[in-house]
Amino acid sequence: MATTNVESINVSAGTAARKKKNVSIVPYLFIAPHLIFFTAFLAWPFIYGIYISLFRFDFLQPNNRPFVGLRNYANLIDPGSVQFPKFWNSLGNTAEFILWSVVPLVGIALILAVLLNRNYPGRGLFRTIFFAPYTLSVTVAAVLWWWIFQQTGIVNQALQGFGLKPVNWLGDLPGAWVAITICTVWWTIGFNTIILLTALQEIPKSLYEAASLDGANSRQQFFLITIPMLRSVLVFVLTITLIASANLFGQPYIMTAGGPADGTQTVIYRIFFEGMLRGQMGTAAAMSIFVALLLMVLTYLNFKFFGQTEQQ
Amino acid sequence: MTTLQKVQDIQETDVEIGESRLSRSLFYLVLILFALFFLLPLLWMVVTAFKPFEEWLTPNWIPMNPTLENFTSIFNDKSLPVVNWFLNSLLIASLFTLVILIIDSLAGYAYARLEFPGKNLLFGLMLATLVMPGIMFLIPNYLTVARLGWIGSIQGVIVPGFAGVFGVFFMRQFFQSLPKELEEAAYIDGASIWRTFFSVILPLSKGPLITLGIITFLTSWNDFLWPLLILGGDRQELTLPVGLATLQGQYTFDYGKLMAGALVLTVPVLILYAVFQRYIIRSISMTGIKG
Fold first, then answer.
1. Taking CB atoms and an 8 Å limit, are B102 and A191 in contact across chains?
2. A131, A211, B85, B190: which sits with the fewest CB atoms below 10 Å from its CB?
């Protein structure tokens, strides 16, 4: 085993104090550079965020920040509180966007990756095109699709060209979700596609050759070789897509400003509004932690239901 | 190996594409429809940017009177230092990517292959942060950066991001997929962990490192909210995405000027992308053939 060798090497390298326990410091040197930043900017702010959430922490009133215990949390589940309706509206909106976006973001990415994994003239060009929008900033993507879906924009002009009525995409539901989802798929799907394509290329060709010799057709090969071999990568892609969709902010911020009537105000948008615009850091911190717990449960369930055969 | 692989590829091409003319045309039709979905919005941005005011709201895909006035009005506005924004974005994204590649491949290797007390606990903590919305760290980190006196500085934009765990996770997944025999052979030959890592493992990791590098660079390049908070006070020192948002704030319904601005900010990125993309394709296909 590598472990035994690792330990013996370090004993001979002379970490005298640790000799008896055979614990090497080398692994800690590997993780130290990252761990220092991780502690300062992810672990510490996590604790500090919890601390803030226990106070009525008004950014503009540094001398008036009383300890309120769990009241910021209680307000989130108390239907009578001021925060309750807008917070749960934003959670519902986020769930709605997840339902809109995750299936196309994973499903279409898989289709694109499979299309790119074959050999044909022009394959490199198509790969370049599919990934190109991912190189753009959210501001470019959102401003561009905001323009396309304007009431006077090209989509409505095309509809009118076909004799159909123009749609108030960004000012109505579900039009706004359609616009935001299309913008997001267009902008980010290249990322999932490249990860899936890289994984597809790592599947040994000999598996497919053996399957063809045994008379398996392409469909059988896809479901009996490709999908099982991709399973752990698919779970990974599904998980990061869920998280990314739950973190939706820039697109509605630029395209709809959360409208119409807070209909596309996502939970991240709500937290931003509460903390940065209203200065209510305590409430915003409590909302963040509430959402974090929800997401962790979601991720756990995701790995539990879709990741199981990994161990077999 | 190389020749054999090529022969196999050619055979595969013959089998798959040669099936029938109909399925081949259908295959290309699907590809072209997808390509249009990705390309037409970009083309529409270009077209709008070169249209004069009177044509903004007409659906012609070729400007009748193409003009540069949208660009000149942006560049002549001294309050919009687009070149400064570009250099800032480039510096921030490059420094960030370099450091991330070093610290994340080191950490990813330790979490994948080395044994040490506390490993599972630390990795569990990192996984937990992966599912937390970034915004929950925003306010406390802003206060930390302010205490360090980094508001308005490049290190204020870059350093907190070094804590990110995606790269560690990504590199760990890759290192776990490598056969253990590689390291065992190196250890038997008497190589240390460091030596094994730098001369056996890293040379096999070019593909994943380049992929992670590009993803990291783009993430930093496109980051919006954090640089807005840290640099937002000084218009000269913004990054490109924050600058474009400023542009939108200033020219809300001047579609031509907005698209000109978006285009100015997009073209350098697409050029960089073309360069990186060729490299990533070559390296992936090379590792595919050799590996």
1. no
2. B190
